[in-house]
Amino acid sequence: MAIYASFRSIGAYAPEKILSNSDLEKMVDTTDEWIVKRTGIKERRIADEHISTSDMGAMAANIAIERSGLGKEDIDLVICATVTPDYFNMPSTACIISDKIGISNVQAFDISAACSGFVYSLTIAKAFIESGMKKNVLVIGAEKFSSIVDYTDRSTCVLFGDGAGAAVISATTDKSEAFMDIHASADGSYADFLVTPAPGSVHPANQKMLDEKLNFVQMKGNETFKLAVKTLTKDVIDILETNSIDASEIKHFIPHQANYRIIKAVGDALGMREDQVVLTVQKYGNTSAASIPMAINDIYESGRLKEGELMLLDTFGGGLTWASALIPFAGKVK
Ligand code: UT7
Fold it and tell me: Please, which of 112, 128, 235, 255 could form a disulfide with 324 given CB 3.0 to 4.6 Å?
Protein backbone atom coordinates (compact mmCIF):
# COMPACT_ATOMS: atom_id res chain seq x y z
CA MET A 1 0.00 0.00 0.00
CA ALA A 2 1.33 3.44 -0.92
CA ILE A 3 2.45 5.68 1.92
CA TYR A 4 1.86 9.44 1.75
CA ALA A 5 2.90 12.44 3.83
CA SER A 6 0.12 14.33 5.64
CA PHE A 7 0.07 17.65 7.49
CA ARG A 8 -1.13 16.48 10.90
CA SER A 9 -0.78 19.47 13.24
CA ILE A 10 0.47 23.02 13.66
CA GLY A 11 1.77 25.14 16.53
CA ALA A 12 3.52 28.48 16.92
CA TYR A 13 5.11 30.84 19.37
CA ALA A 14 5.30 34.63 19.12
CA PRO A 15 7.30 36.57 21.73
CA GLU A 16 5.22 38.94 23.86
CA LYS A 17 7.33 42.04 23.33
CA ILE A 18 5.96 44.27 20.56
CA LEU A 19 8.14 46.62 18.53
CA SER A 20 5.71 49.08 16.95
CA ASN A 21 6.24 51.49 14.08
CA SER A 22 6.11 54.37 16.53
CA ASP A 23 8.92 52.71 18.54
CA LEU A 24 10.97 52.55 15.32
CA GLU A 25 10.24 56.22 14.60
CA LYS A 26 12.30 56.95 17.74
CA MET A 27 15.18 54.73 16.60
CA VAL A 28 15.68 55.57 12.90
CA ASP A 29 14.59 58.17 10.33
CA THR A 30 11.26 56.57 9.40
CA THR A 31 7.53 57.06 9.84
CA ASP A 32 4.58 54.82 10.61
CA GLU A 33 3.02 56.09 7.39
CA TRP A 34 6.03 55.01 5.24
CA ILE A 35 6.24 51.57 6.83
CA VAL A 36 2.51 50.85 6.53
CA LYS A 37 2.28 52.18 2.98
CA ARG A 38 5.38 50.35 1.68
CA THR A 39 5.11 47.10 3.65
CA GLY A 40 1.75 46.78 5.47
CA ILE A 41 3.65 46.12 8.72
CA LYS A 42 2.31 47.78 11.88
CA GLU A 43 4.27 45.89 14.49
CA ARG A 44 6.57 42.92 14.96
CA ARG A 45 7.51 40.72 17.93
CA ILE A 46 10.99 40.76 19.44
CA ALA A 47 12.36 38.00 21.68
CA ASP A 48 13.97 38.94 25.00
CA GLU A 49 17.74 38.80 25.20
CA HIS A 50 17.76 35.49 27.11
CA ILE A 51 15.40 33.77 24.60
CA SER A 52 17.10 31.92 21.76
CA THR A 53 15.82 30.55 18.46
CA SER A 54 15.70 27.05 19.97
CA ASP A 55 13.60 28.29 22.92
CA MET A 56 10.98 29.62 20.52
CA GLY A 57 11.22 26.54 18.31
CA ALA A 58 10.76 24.26 21.32
CA MET A 59 7.64 26.13 22.45
CA ALA A 60 6.08 25.87 18.97
CA ALA A 61 7.11 22.21 18.70
CA ASN A 62 5.52 21.25 22.01
CA ILE A 63 2.20 22.73 20.88
CA ALA A 64 2.36 20.98 17.48
CA ILE A 65 3.13 17.61 19.09
CA GLU A 66 0.35 18.01 21.63
CA ARG A 67 -2.16 18.86 18.89
CA SER A 68 -1.00 15.91 16.79
CA GLY A 69 -2.24 13.47 19.41
CA LEU A 70 1.09 11.66 19.17
CA GLY A 71 3.63 11.11 21.92
CA LYS A 72 7.14 12.54 21.75
CA GLU A 73 8.42 8.98 21.37
CA ASP A 74 6.55 8.77 18.04
CA ILE A 75 8.66 11.53 16.44
CA ASP A 76 11.49 9.98 14.44
CA LEU A 77 13.01 13.01 12.67
CA VAL A 78 13.43 16.67 13.69
CA ILE A 79 14.18 19.33 11.09
CA CYS A 80 14.65 23.00 11.96
CA ALA A 81 14.67 25.64 9.25
CA THR A 82 16.50 28.76 10.39
CA VAL A 83 19.04 31.36 9.35
CA THR A 84 19.42 32.55 12.93
CA PRO A 85 20.60 29.33 14.59
CA ASP A 86 21.55 29.29 18.26
CA TYR A 87 25.16 28.75 17.18
CA PHE A 88 27.13 29.35 14.00
CA ASN A 89 27.25 26.49 13.06
CA MET A 90 27.22 23.66 15.56
CA PRO A 91 25.45 22.17 17.28
CA SER A 92 22.41 22.47 15.08
CA THR A 93 19.34 24.20 16.48
CA ALA A 94 17.33 21.03 15.73
CA CYS A 95 19.58 19.07 18.15
CA ILE A 96 19.03 21.67 20.85
CA ILE A 97 15.27 21.80 20.30
CA SER A 98 15.10 17.97 20.45
CA ASP A 99 16.83 18.05 23.81
CA LYS A 100 14.67 20.88 25.15
CA ILE A 101 11.43 19.08 24.30
CA GLY A 102 12.65 15.69 25.51
CA ILE A 103 13.18 13.83 22.26
CA SER A 104 16.37 11.79 22.17
CA ASN A 105 18.07 9.32 19.87
CA VAL A 106 16.41 10.55 16.69
CA GLN A 107 17.93 12.15 13.62
CA ALA A 108 17.94 15.98 13.87
CA PHE A 109 19.37 18.62 11.56
CA ASP A 110 18.95 22.21 10.35
CA ILE A 111 18.05 23.50 6.91
CA SER A 112 19.33 26.81 5.59
CA ALA A 113 17.01 28.17 2.91
CA ALA A 114 16.15 31.53 4.51
CA CYS A 115 12.45 32.42 4.22
CA SER A 116 11.82 29.30 2.12
CA GLY A 117 13.21 27.04 4.86
CA PHE A 118 9.89 25.74 6.20
CA VAL A 119 8.55 24.69 2.79
CA TYR A 120 11.98 23.29 1.85
CA SER A 121 11.80 21.20 5.04
CA LEU A 122 8.36 19.93 4.05
CA THR A 123 9.89 18.54 0.84
CA ILE A 124 12.40 16.62 2.96
CA ALA A 125 9.74 15.37 5.38
CA LYS A 126 7.68 14.16 2.42
CA ALA A 127 10.62 12.31 0.88
CA PHE A 128 11.59 10.61 4.16
CA ILE A 129 8.01 9.53 4.81
CA GLU A 130 7.17 8.35 1.30
CA SER A 131 10.40 6.34 1.14
CA GLY A 132 9.32 4.57 4.33
CA MET A 133 12.37 5.78 6.29
CA LYS A 134 10.41 7.87 8.83
CA LYS A 135 6.83 8.00 10.10
CA ASN A 136 6.41 11.26 12.03
CA VAL A 137 8.58 14.25 11.20
CA LEU A 138 8.67 17.38 13.34
CA VAL A 139 9.31 20.37 11.07
CA ILE A 140 10.14 23.68 12.72
CA GLY A 141 10.70 27.17 11.29
CA ALA A 142 12.24 29.37 13.97
CA GLU A 143 14.01 32.72 13.83
CA LYS A 144 15.44 35.22 16.23
CA PHE A 145 15.85 37.53 13.27
CA SER A 146 16.43 40.49 15.59
CA SER A 147 19.84 38.95 16.31
CA ILE A 148 21.04 39.77 12.78
CA VAL A 149 19.25 43.10 12.27
CA ASP A 150 21.07 46.43 12.45
CA TYR A 151 18.64 48.67 14.34
CA THR A 152 20.31 51.75 12.86
CA ASP A 153 19.55 50.64 9.27
CA ARG A 154 16.05 51.84 8.37
CA SER A 155 15.97 49.86 5.14
CA THR A 156 15.93 46.53 7.01
CA CYS A 157 15.07 47.07 10.69
CA VAL A 158 11.42 47.93 10.00
CA LEU A 159 10.84 44.64 8.18
CA PHE A 160 11.79 41.73 10.37
CA GLY A 161 10.50 40.07 13.54
CA ASP A 162 11.03 37.00 15.72
CA GLY A 163 8.94 33.88 16.19
CA ALA A 164 8.56 30.17 15.51
CA GLY A 165 6.14 27.71 13.99
CA ALA A 166 6.13 23.92 13.93
CA ALA A 167 4.23 21.12 12.25
CA VAL A 168 4.02 17.36 12.60
CA ILE A 169 4.08 15.62 9.24
CA SER A 170 2.94 12.00 9.43
CA ALA A 171 2.67 8.94 7.25
CA THR A 172 -0.80 8.04 6.02
CA THR A 173 -2.33 5.56 3.59
CA ASP A 174 -5.34 7.83 3.05
CA LYS A 175 -4.74 9.64 -0.25
CA SER A 176 -7.24 12.39 0.59
CA GLU A 177 -4.91 13.50 3.42
CA ALA A 178 -1.76 13.42 1.28
CA PHE A 179 0.44 16.35 0.24
CA MET A 180 -0.85 17.02 -3.27
CA ASP A 181 2.35 18.54 -4.64
CA ILE A 182 5.39 20.50 -3.57
CA HIS A 183 8.00 22.41 -5.59
CA ALA A 184 11.28 23.93 -4.40
CA SER A 185 13.95 25.74 -6.37
CA ALA A 186 16.93 28.08 -6.11
CA ASP A 187 19.10 30.47 -8.11
CA GLY A 188 22.44 31.27 -6.48
CA SER A 189 23.29 33.91 -9.07
CA TYR A 190 21.14 36.26 -6.95
CA ALA A 191 22.97 35.36 -3.72
CA ASP A 192 23.91 38.99 -3.07
CA PHE A 193 20.26 40.15 -2.96
CA LEU A 194 19.88 38.97 0.64
CA VAL A 195 23.01 38.21 2.60
CA THR A 196 24.49 38.17 6.08
CA PRO A 197 28.16 38.51 5.09
CA ALA A 198 29.76 37.30 8.35
CA PRO A 199 30.72 35.24 10.24
CA GLY A 200 31.55 32.54 7.73
CA SER A 201 34.47 31.16 5.75
CA VAL A 202 34.39 34.20 3.43
CA HIS A 203 34.52 36.68 6.31
CA PRO A 204 35.50 34.95 9.56
CA ALA A 205 34.57 36.71 12.78
CA ASN A 206 37.07 39.50 13.42
CA GLN A 207 37.27 43.19 14.20
CA LYS A 208 36.58 44.09 10.54
CA MET A 209 33.28 42.19 10.80
CA LEU A 210 32.25 44.34 13.75
CA ASP A 211 33.58 47.61 12.31
CA GLU A 212 31.80 47.10 8.98
CA LYS A 213 28.70 45.51 10.56
CA LEU A 214 29.06 42.45 8.34
CA ASN A 215 27.16 40.32 10.86
CA PHE A 216 23.89 42.07 10.00
CA VAL A 217 21.47 41.24 7.21
CA GLN A 218 21.86 43.25 4.01
CA MET A 219 19.17 43.35 1.34
CA LYS A 220 18.75 44.79 -2.12
CA GLY A 221 15.14 45.54 -1.23
CA ASN A 222 13.74 46.88 -4.46
CA GLU A 223 15.42 44.27 -6.70
CA THR A 224 14.27 41.51 -4.33
CA PHE A 225 10.74 42.92 -4.35
CA LYS A 226 10.43 42.81 -8.14
CA LEU A 227 11.87 39.31 -8.43
CA ALA A 228 9.68 38.08 -5.55
CA VAL A 229 6.46 39.19 -7.26
CA LYS A 230 7.50 37.61 -10.57
CA THR A 231 8.77 34.34 -9.11
CA LEU A 232 5.98 33.81 -6.58
CA THR A 233 3.31 34.39 -9.23
CA LYS A 234 4.95 32.06 -11.76
CA ASP A 235 5.52 29.39 -9.12
CA VAL A 236 1.87 29.36 -8.11
CA ILE A 237 0.63 29.32 -11.70
CA ASP A 238 2.93 26.33 -12.36
CA ILE A 239 1.82 24.26 -9.38
CA LEU A 240 -1.87 24.99 -9.99
CA GLU A 241 -1.59 24.09 -13.68
CA THR A 242 0.41 20.92 -13.00
CA ASN A 243 -2.32 19.73 -10.65
CA SER A 244 -5.28 21.02 -12.70
CA ILE A 245 -6.46 23.16 -9.78
CA ASP A 246 -8.19 26.49 -10.29
CA ALA A 247 -7.19 29.34 -7.96
CA SER A 248 -10.83 29.56 -6.82
CA GLU A 249 -10.55 26.02 -5.36
CA ILE A 250 -7.87 27.10 -2.87
CA LYS A 251 -9.35 27.59 0.57
CA HIS A 252 -6.27 29.22 2.12
CA PHE A 253 -3.54 30.96 0.13
CA ILE A 254 -0.68 31.27 2.63
CA PRO A 255 2.18 33.27 1.10
CA HIS A 256 5.44 34.20 2.80
CA GLN A 257 4.72 37.30 4.88
CA ALA A 258 7.42 39.75 3.73
CA ASN A 259 5.46 42.67 2.40
CA TYR A 260 1.71 43.30 1.93
CA ARG A 261 2.37 44.81 -1.52
CA ILE A 262 4.05 41.59 -2.68
CA ILE A 263 1.19 39.47 -1.32
CA LYS A 264 -1.42 41.77 -2.92
CA ALA A 265 0.34 41.80 -6.29
CA VAL A 266 0.62 37.99 -6.37
CA GLY A 267 -2.93 37.49 -5.07
CA ASP A 268 -4.32 39.88 -7.69
CA ALA A 269 -2.34 38.26 -10.52
CA LEU A 270 -3.87 34.92 -9.55
CA GLY A 271 -7.37 36.33 -9.09
CA MET A 272 -7.48 35.34 -5.41
CA ARG A 273 -10.37 36.71 -3.35
CA GLU A 274 -9.51 38.57 -0.15
CA ASP A 275 -11.01 35.83 2.02
CA GLN A 276 -8.61 33.28 0.51
CA VAL A 277 -5.44 35.19 1.37
CA VAL A 278 -3.92 34.74 4.83
CA LEU A 279 -2.27 37.87 6.24
CA THR A 280 -0.15 38.17 9.37
CA VAL A 281 2.52 40.57 8.08
CA GLN A 282 0.79 43.51 9.79
CA LYS A 283 1.36 42.04 13.26
CA TYR A 284 4.50 39.89 12.94
CA GLY A 285 6.47 41.50 10.09
CA ASN A 286 8.76 39.14 8.19
CA THR A 287 9.77 36.22 10.41
CA SER A 288 11.66 34.40 7.64
CA ALA A 289 11.39 30.57 8.03
CA ALA A 290 8.76 31.01 10.77
CA SER A 291 6.47 33.12 8.61
CA ILE A 292 4.42 30.39 6.92
CA PRO A 293 3.91 28.07 9.93
CA MET A 294 3.01 31.10 12.10
CA ALA A 295 0.44 32.11 9.47
CA ILE A 296 -1.01 28.57 9.33
CA ASN A 297 -1.20 28.57 13.13
CA ASP A 298 -2.98 31.90 13.04
CA ILE A 299 -5.87 30.57 10.95
CA TYR A 300 -5.90 27.34 12.97
CA GLU A 301 -6.23 29.16 16.28
CA SER A 302 -8.87 31.56 14.97
CA GLY A 303 -10.95 28.59 13.82
CA ARG A 304 -10.61 29.36 10.11
CA LEU A 305 -8.59 26.24 9.22
CA LYS A 306 -10.61 23.03 9.14
CA GLU A 307 -9.68 19.43 8.50
CA GLY A 308 -9.47 18.60 4.79
CA GLU A 309 -9.20 22.21 3.59
CA LEU A 310 -6.66 22.85 0.85
CA MET A 311 -3.73 25.15 1.63
CA LEU A 312 -1.52 26.73 -1.02
CA LEU A 313 1.87 27.72 0.41
CA ASP A 314 4.16 30.05 -1.54
CA THR A 315 7.51 31.36 -0.38
CA PHE A 316 10.58 33.26 -1.49
CA GLY A 317 13.83 34.20 0.25
CA GLY A 318 17.58 34.50 0.44
CA GLY A 319 19.64 32.23 -1.74
CA LEU A 320 17.62 33.04 -3.71
CA THR A 321 15.25 30.23 -2.91
CA TRP A 322 11.57 29.73 -3.55
CA ALA A 323 8.99 27.00 -3.05
CA SER A 324 5.28 26.29 -3.24
CA ALA A 325 3.04 23.51 -2.00
CA LEU A 326 -0.54 22.25 -2.29
CA ILE A 327 -1.38 20.54 0.98
CA PRO A 328 -4.70 19.59 2.60
CA PHE A 329 -4.78 20.22 6.34
CA ALA A 330 -5.05 16.76 7.87
CA GLY A 331 -5.21 17.85 11.51
CA LYS A 332 -8.05 17.45 13.90
CA VAL A 333 -9.61 20.77 14.83
CA LYS A 334 -9.73 21.55 18.54
O1 UT7 B 1 11.79 37.71 2.99
C2 UT7 B 1 12.66 37.65 1.92
C3 UT7 B 1 12.26 38.43 0.78
N4 UT7 B 1 12.23 39.83 1.10
C5 UT7 B 1 11.42 40.61 0.45
O6 UT7 B 1 10.64 40.12 -0.32
C7 UT7 B 1 11.51 42.09 0.69
C8 UT7 B 1 11.38 42.79 -0.63
N9 UT7 B 1 11.49 44.24 -0.59
C10 UT7 B 1 10.60 45.06 -0.02
O11 UT7 B 1 9.70 44.65 0.67
C12 UT7 B 1 10.70 46.52 -0.35
O13 UT7 B 1 11.63 46.69 -1.39
C14 UT7 B 1 11.10 47.42 0.84
C15 UT7 B 1 9.96 47.55 1.81
C16 UT7 B 1 12.33 46.88 1.53
C17 UT7 B 1 11.42 48.85 0.34
O18 UT7 B 1 10.33 49.38 -0.40
P19 UT7 B 1 10.56 50.03 -1.85
O20 UT7 B 1 9.27 50.52 -2.29
O21 UT7 B 1 11.24 49.00 -2.69
O22 UT7 B 1 11.51 51.24 -1.49
P23 UT7 B 1 12.99 51.57 -2.02
O24 UT7 B 1 13.96 50.58 -1.46
O25 UT7 B 1 12.95 51.76 -3.49
O26 UT7 B 1 13.23 52.96 -1.31
C27 UT7 B 1 12.43 54.09 -1.60
C28 UT7 B 1 12.86 55.22 -0.71
C29 UT7 B 1 14.37 55.44 -0.66
O30 UT7 B 1 14.61 56.82 -0.61
P31 UT7 B 1 15.05 57.63 -1.93
O32 UT7 B 1 16.32 56.97 -2.39
O33 UT7 B 1 13.91 57.46 -2.90
O34 UT7 B 1 15.23 59.01 -1.42
C35 UT7 B 1 14.78 54.84 0.66
O36 UT7 B 1 15.92 55.43 1.20
O37 UT7 B 1 12.46 54.95 0.65
C38 UT7 B 1 13.58 55.14 1.52
N39 UT7 B 1 13.44 54.27 2.66
C40 UT7 B 1 12.77 54.61 3.77
N41 UT7 B 1 12.12 55.74 4.11
C42 UT7 B 1 11.52 55.77 5.33
C43 UT7 B 1 13.90 52.98 2.82
N44 UT7 B 1 13.55 52.53 4.02
C45 UT7 B 1 12.84 53.50 4.63
C46 UT7 B 1 12.19 53.60 5.88
N47 UT7 B 1 11.56 54.76 6.18
N48 UT7 B 1 12.19 52.60 6.77
Answer: 235
222 lines ligand 1 (CB under 6 A): yes
Q: What is the CATH number of the domain that holds 87?
A: 3.40.47.10
| C-beta 259 within 6 A of ligand 1 | yes
Q: Is 115 in the pocket of ligand 1 (CB under 6 A)?
A: yes
Amino acid at 290: A
Percent helix, strand, coil in the chain (nearest 5)? Answer: 40, 25, 35
Is 51 within the bounds of a domain?
A: yes
Instruction: Fill in the amino acid letter for 249.
Output: E
Nearest CA to ligand 1 atom 35: 155
**Residue 260 CA to ligand 1 centre (angstroms):** 13
Domain check: are 275 and 149 in the same one? no
Query: pLDDT tens digits for 76-109?
Result: 999 999 999 999 889 999 999 999 999 999 999 9
CB 108 within 8 A of CB 311: no
**Distance between Cα 183 and ligand 1 center (Å):** 29
CA-CA-CA-CA dihedral for 108, 124, 224, 29, to nearest 10:
-30
> In the chain, how many domains are there?
2
By residue range, what is the domain housing residue 241?
181-328
pTM score: 0.97
Same structural domain for residues 226 and 169?
no
- Ligand 1 pocket member 227 (CB < 6 A): no
* Nearest-CA residue for atom 21 of ligand 1: 222
Q: Are both 215 and 169 inside the same structural domain?
A: no
